[in-house]
Amino acid sequence: MNWSDYPNFSEDEFRCRHTGKSAMHPDFMARLQRLRTAYGKPMRITSGYRDPTHPIEAKKSVPGAHASGRACDVAIRGAEAVELLKLALQHGFTGIGVQQKGEGRFLHLDDIEDGSQPRPMLWSYP
Fold it and tell me: Strand pairing partners for 76?
């Protein structure tokens, strides 16, 4: 993958924190770059690719969107989170998880279309 196609992001910020591997999907990254361009502000990625052996993925019966390279979590809060959420829906993100409580506030963004659940889907973390 040519990371220069995504000038607002670096491969390092998307590496699995468990294995160091990077396997982001180019279509997801292109969508994320378009979102970043429309948003016009920095986006701090707190989780990108997660290898299926990553502790979070390993607990699941089937690895999730992060393990497919089609998801990331963006550290963001308050009105900025609402703005980014609206833009994400406009840019074709089909899964948006909202965590806006406590210290680790973020939005999960993915573009999975596996047919297992109606999309777009919006959820809040407990």
Answer: none
